[in-house]
Design a protein that fits this description.
single chain; about 210 residues; alpha/beta; Nucleotidyltransferase, domain 5; five-stranded mixed beta sheet; 5 strands
Length: about 210
């Protein structure tokens, strides 16, 4: 991978996580995923460079009952030899951003922008567990949820259907669907966020 541009702030780092509990004070990461686009929502690098990692689950971490019941395959993957340590995930994410934007800029306003749905929750985990990655990111975030709320207010019966792959392809043609279930899959969800923003750009801001 090679540096693509000196204008790092023109990139969106689409990011999503799965984690052990809604209590963010005690939650641990189970999965991280990242995909970088330009501001036109076009991929900057081919899909094989996208980040899709299951995080090793320490023995002392308590899982919420909901996670235990609904994410058994992910939990199994996080306890498998293929899972990675959190520091390895941090370096992979940082290297991915550097491959697109170059070495981290000294000024935070010149770095790529973290993007996604309800991105404040994912940012919580970035700040807590992923310091190298955090050092590559802009201080501003792009939260698609803002547009979702406004869209629902204006069009309560026309919600964007992220579970429909045809709809996903329509608004994000470069989507790569996970082999396993798309529900509660960080890689699927961040691509759904890209498609959803493209949907709002086309319909919410129409003259």
């Amino acid at each position: 991978m090679t540096k693509q541009s000196d204008n790092a702030y023109q990139f969106y780092v689409w990011f999503d996580t799965e984690y052990t509990s809604l209590d963010l004070e005690t939650a641990w990461l189970l999965q991280v995923a990242a995909l970088i686009t330009d501001t036109s929502l076009q991929r900057v690098l081919p899909s094989e460079y996208d980040i899709r990692l299951n995080i090793r689950l320490p023995d002392n971490i308590t899982l919420s009952p909901w996670v235990e019941q609904n994410l058994p395959d992910l939990i199994k993957a996080c306890r498998s030899p293929e899972a990675v340590n959190i520091d390895v995930a941090d370096k992979c994410l940082a290297d991915y951003v550097d491959a697109v934007a170059g070495s981290p800029a000294g000024r935070a306003d010149q770095r790529p922008i973290l993007a996604g749905n309800s991105i404040h929750e994912d940012w919580w985990f970035v700040r807590r567990y992923l310091p190298l990655f955090m050092n590559r990111l802009h201080y501003r975030h792009l939260d698609v949820t803002t547009f979702k709320i406004e869209w629902k207010f204006l069009h309560p019966d026309a919600e964007f259907d992220k579970d429909d792959q045809e709809t996903m392809r329509q608004y994000f043609p470069d989507a790569v669907f996970p082999v396993h279930s798309k529900r509660h899959n960080a890689y699927y969800d961040l691509q759904a966020s890209i498609a959803e923003l493209a949907f709002y750009r086309r319909h919410l801001f129409r003259p």
